[in-house]
Structures are given as C-alpha cells and as structure tokens.
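Milestone M4 deliverable, item 7.
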Amino acid sequence: MEPITISRTELRQLVSRRWFLRDCGVSLGAMALLSVLGGRAAAALAGSAPANPLGPRQPHFKPKAKRVIYMFQAGAPSHLDLFDPKPELGKRSGKLPPPELLKDYRAAFINPNSALLGPKFKFAKHGQAGTEIAELLPKISEILDDVCLIRSMHTDAVNHAPAQIMMNTGSQQFGRPSLGAWTLYGLGTESENLPGYVVLSSANGTSGGASNWGCGFLPTIYAGVPFRSSGDPVLYLSNPKGFDDDTQRASLDALKKLNQLALADYHDPETLARIQNYEMAYRMQSSAPELMDFSKEPKHILEMYGVDPAKPNFARNCLLARRLIERGVRFVQLFHEAWDQHGDLKGGLTRNCKETDQASAALVKDLKQRGLLEDTLVIWGGEFGRTPMAQGTDDGRDHHNRSYSIWMTGAGIKRGIVYGETDELGFNVVRDPIHVHDLNATILHLLGFDHTKLTYRFQGRDFRLTDVHGEVVKGILA
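Output delivered:
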C-alpha cells in the first residue's frame, strides 16, 4: 500500500490551531476560567452556570469578620491635630526641627527645614482608658472604648494618588486589585440583588480614581460598583420611556443566550462577568429603590446620623452603608476626599470634622445596637499623615508618610486601646510600627484568610494583596 502524503497546507487545514483549541475543548481560555472560578467555571462550561457565580464561599479558616465598612478619609487627615497629641511639638512651635530628624527625609512640597507647627486644637482624655483625641471629634470621643486607635501607621508613598492606591491595593502602581475586590474574590457575597462591593463618595473625587476600588487583573465581576449620590444609584438603571418589563426581560434573555454561546466558544471569564452584571442590573431595578428609600428609618436614627434624606453627603452614605450590609453586601467603601490641608489647616479641619464626626460615630453605635458590630469590621483613616513642620506661614501641613493614625473597630478587633507610638514631635514611629501591608494582612486574617495563600496567577506569577510582605498585627486582635 502506497503511503499517504499530504502537503503542509493540507496538514495545517486538518490539524489547525483553531480545531485543536476549540474542538478538543482544552482551550487556554477554558483552563484560565477553570483556574479562576474553579467548580463554578466547570458548571458554566457545561452549560449550567449557577444563578449567582458570586455566591458565598468559605475562607481558609473561620473568620471573625463577615463584612467590611471602610470609611476612607482621602486627602490625609492630620494625625497631629486629631489623634496623636504632642505637647512637645506645641512647645517648640516656630522653631526649626532637629537636624538629625531630617536625615534622608523627603517631603512632597516644603523645604523639610521649615519651622515646626504645634497642634491647632486642644486634646482631652475620653473613655475608661482615657484615650486622648482632639476637641474637634466630640462624637468619636464617645465611642473610644469600642475603638482601637492606631498611632503607628506608615507607608511608602508621599503623594496622594500613589498613597491612596497603595492603601487600597498594596501597590503604588496602577492595575492591582483593590482590597474590596480581593475580599469579593475570596468570599463571594450574600446579596443576590445588590453588588457585593459598593463604593460611595462624598466631597471631592479621589486622587487615585477608580483604581482605588478596581479589580485590576481579577475578572471585572469583582470590581467595586460606585453608587451615585442622586437619581439612579447606577447610571441608566431605569428603563427608558416606552420600554416595559416584558420587553426588557425578553431582550435580556436574548442577550444572555448570545453571551452563553460566546462563553461556550471562547471560555472568556469576562463573558461570564457580563452575564452576571446584566442580571444584577435587572434585579437592582427593584432592590435599589427600596435601598435608597429612607422613609422607614426612624426619626431618631436619622437624627443620630445627622441625615437629611434629600441631601447627599457623608452622613447619608454612612447610613446607606449600614443598609447595604444588612442586605448582604460584603464590602462597602466610603470615600470622603477633603483632608488635604496645605493651607487653612484650622478652618479645613473644622469643616471636615463637622461633616464626618457625627456620622462616623453614629455608624459604629448603630451597628453595635443591632448586633452587627460583632461580625462587621469598620475602618476609618486616610493614606498618610501630615508634617510636624508648617507649610506656608503657620496654617498648613505637607504630606508625611512616616507616621499617621487610623482607627478600627468591630469583628475581632481589641477595643478601647491605643496601639503604637510616635516620637515627641509625631515625626517617626518609635513603637509597634504598622506598614500598609501589615494592615491589609490583618484585615484578610479577620476575614478568614492567610494573606500569603489568597493569590491569583497573572502573567506567570502568583500575585497577592500584600505582595511579598506583610505580617498580621496580633497586638490589635481580640
């Protein structure tokens, strides 16, 4: 029998790359989807995608926290004027800092050898532990026995955008997943009718923009969803005039079938995300109006937060955060960018605290009285601190990354304590330093994750929120 010979062209036609990848059912897209979504992807490829691919999942170990509310005070509140009293700084106000203090120091704008500036406000002790904070925060002073005040944060970044992105993604570079996205990736969500990760903004837009709540290289289904302060919470959520529910449902069903065909052909996880997002938007048409309707909130609750339901602001967002987690949302992040006091330090801080103090404390009190604080982690803080040296004349402070303060409360957090310490001028951390990666490692620990094992393979490397750093801060854990 004569051997069969075929040309190279015929061989390519018989055993084409497309035939191998598509018809053999082992495409790179399928393998990627399986690695990302595990059993959920297998079900999707078999044509039986679950109703909610973001359904709740178990972490590495039993978590203390089931959900997170992060009140991000963008622009960097001055720790020296709010949370970290420094009498010695007041005594030396107007004098130059010690030369040894400025060795290798880099400020964002000012000459580091500028005159020192004492605190602008009085401090007083509060609570059983006698924690000192500024007079500008009378409502937060009422919850200090429920709070862990951290005075020893430090970061690598010295400007707003990279520092905000680092606080939220663990990196100064764009393109990394945010803390909220990692949380959703690891835990899923308990809400079928609202996004698992919701973003609320007040004051000015953040310097770091959408990277603060983005999904980076994770599938887009894990990204934060910004809610607007007026009108539809999400743009174009309502049907246009003349488009009834039956027509919409028929259109979505047709679109879903087309997307499922594309998913079967190309196995792209973004197609699965698109299917879920369309269905979520449909369900939100009924759930979002109820969420935004404050008419059933008791008058004393509105007054406790300082909420005018018709007026979008930080207080309204705090109450909305509580309503969101009651409906199963996993991660709620509030951004209030107004704290960048290079000048008008006294006036700016007074305004900012008036806008945020009452509602921040009310949220903690409200969660506690409803039994939600036991498994909700609450975080309050910005991206860095402010310099002990004055900027301008005597009414401004520059960026300062070597020390700053935040506070935390809720699930698994030791309460009524002050953790960490800075030197007598509030310049350097001298006890129990906490880096951004340490903070994020601790947050993930409270959510039930070993931060070294919550990873995602991208471009040949296993990435994680804490990069190759970070230690759980056991001293703040209950």
